[in-house]
Amino acid sequence: MFEERCAKLLQQVDVDAFLVVHLEGTDPDGASMFYLTGYPGFGVLLVTPQGVHAYASATNIGMARQAAPHLDWQLLGWEYQKEIGTLIRKHAPKRVAFAARRMGYYTASSLQAEDVAEFVIEDDPINYVRSIKQPSEIAAIRRATEITEEALAQVLQDLRLGQTEAEIAWRLECEMRTRGAEGLAFDLIVSAGENSALPHHRPDSRSIQASDLLLFDIGAKFDGYCSDMTRVVSIGPASPRWKELYEVVLNANQAGIETFAPGVSGPQVDQAARNVIADAGYAEFYPHGLSHGVGIEVHELPMSEGRNAVAAYQPGMVCTAEPGIYLPGEGGIRIEDLLAITDTGHELLTSFPKDRLIELDVEA
Fold first, then answer.
1. Most buried residue, 157, 190, 243, 308, by CB count within 10 Å?
2. What pTM value is reported for the model?
3. Better-predicted residue by pLDDT, 119 or 205
4. Number of other residues whose CB lies within 10 A of the CB of residue 58
5. Are residues 104 and 241 in the same domain?
6. Considering the chain, what is the average pLDDT of its residues?
């Protein structure tokens, strides 16, 4: 499996070797390292057609050998930049590529200052390879999604007036870990009332009160893979206005989902959802795109809009569908589902109820 991934990576770049450096936190969660080896920690890889040369520091080499025993891990000294130059000289590739998005400026400039090889700066070719998942990867995302949904169901059952956003987020994390999650896919978003109008709000001391909207953008991580789901509930009866806005967002969510299929472009699915919100008169209150990829990272290719918008979805891609309407100072509604592109259309990975705005009877 890992040999196949490395081979696909080298097909993306016209070089003698590809350099992966995960030492400075520039490769979030060690995504490239994990994808190519099965080991998520700090280290250096030189991927060549002849094989993968793998290095880790003294504090990490034991874990690397345990997680990826198929590789011959060698010791990397503490003077990292100098050591990387030395190992490149040792293996003598003439042209070496690295991902600009996944290497720190200091390391990149230090290597380029040394006359060890011709360096070719790429965007993020491993991300392109990762965008098409194998069945085992989709299975891990499916289980991460199940854990996320189970945790949310339990937390909603235990909700009480006066609980804070931060407390609810902690309860969600505990429920996820109890069910087998290895961690969070991202910092959980729990936003009450007016805070739900902030798409990336961080849970704080705001307590939930009667008639609040309560938005959950949450995801567990299982076996190295993320889930991502958003649901909104009302604490007590919802106003007719929020019910109406919920229907608009739900219709946009469904319009986007129905458009996902092999060969369809990112802008096509994005526009399908955007048209629904625009037709309802809320275009200015929908500030983000419909979809991003989910895998080892919670935000990865394919994207539905922008410079990296996918030209054609392919089977094996895992994507979100997350339209929203946000009214500043009042509240917001977002509905996010996760789906996998199949040979004939798509498979919905999320199943948490969304057909109406759930109104919870919450006591103090």
1. 190
2. 0.94
3. 205
4. 10
5. no
6. 94
